[in-house]
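Sequence of Tetraspanin (Cathartes aura).
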Amino acid sequence: LLFQILGAVILGFGIWILADKTSFIAVLQMSSPSLKTGAYVLIGVGALTMLMGFLGCLGAVNEIRCLLGLYFTCLMVILITQVAAGLVIYFQKETLKEELSRIVGSLIKNYDPSNDDERNLQDAWDYVQTQIACCGWTGAKDWENNEILINQSMTAYPCSCSNSSKDFQVDSGFCNLDVAVNGTATYADWPVHEQGCMDGVEKWLKDNLGVILGVCTGVAVIELLGMILSISLCKNIHSEDYTKVPKS
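Predicted 3D structure, token representation.
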């Protein structure tokens, strides 16, 4: 039962990644095919875990060694895959950070409120900036690369970056500066948050690191317990008795 619940959680997480349209995850999965592939992998692992949970229960109740052996093998493969994925993420974190910078940099440069084709992606990024209270990836200066703002001599700024109460109800598109010096301005003249979203995301990860590690450790412990129990049951079953297999 525990493994079926665990499988349902993993399956649900994968579906959430694909369905989410209003968070930083949405920005990544709409911009990077690797995250979408990872979501499908999670869905597959979740479904496999649920199936293995069922087979493990069937093998334990009916004392069928081949099912318990299959259950043990699949759990071991899943656990090894999870550890390998964690190690890859840890050792490739700088590469991942560069990839994120590239994705967000391209999004900011091409941000256009009138482009309906990219509406979901742009709305997701506006949501990120509003919720984290940040601007750009490394800072507001990133928005100086936006083609529309360049054409307006920086006399406008992204509304979702605003730290002004008058823009509280506006969380997308561009807002105009009240006063522009000689018809031009820079990001330093904008009433926006100073923190870049990269720092905000890293802070969120640090604040929630304990929860993330706890969940990962809990999953690994449950899988190890399942492996130990299945191999113990296998040793206690002296011979196969296929007459115990339920008749359909």
